[in-house]
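REQUEST FORM: STRUCTURE PREDICTION
Request ID: SP-0412
Submitted by: Lab K.M.
Chain count: 1
Length (residues): 207
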Amino acid sequence: MVDIVEAKFVTSAPTVAAAPESDEQNEVVFMARSNVGKSSLLNALTNYKGLAKVSSTPGKTKLINYFDVTFMDRDNSNKLMAKFVDLPGFGYAKVSKSQKHDWEKNLTDYIATREQIKVFIHLIDCRHPHLDIDTQVSEFLFSNAQENQYILQIFTKIDKLNQKEQSALRREFPNALMVSSAKKRGTKKIIQVIYDLLQEEEGAHED
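STATUS: Completed
RESULT:
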């Protein structure tokens, strides 16, 4: 069994150019439209309630936030260091068009050029699986991800669906993971999957 045993905030960056320097490809990027539960999931995965700030104002976070995270395999005590990267939420932000354009350019630049990224995690509200904005983000990821990067789709707030609705969603998206941060359902599996992907050798690509 794999757990996250330590997590701490490192820094915030307004642009790709200001992102911390690193020779390792060990970044796990969390991205979602606003109010999908990204901060809540980060807190649930790390078991650190105040790690990522949960904003009551959708789209408020404008910076790329970095967290140092330590995984431990309880079976052999092996540790693995990684960085969780919290990207600003896309959509719904109550800002000027020029400011919104700057944010979107920062995000697309980051996704397309940040070679330290190993795993892209695209979070989607399970109650709204077919929004145009999520489809566009998914298409952008698959168009821009490198051969040695992985894309993981996770549906949040799964506790809001009944069993029949959950089953239908799993059939439609068989490769996606399901999570409820509030109920702590699915978090252990996500931690294990991220850990496994971080250890994968270069050359494979997750579709």
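NOTES: The domain at 2-193 is CATH 3.40.50.300 (Rossmann fold).
Reviewed by: T.R.
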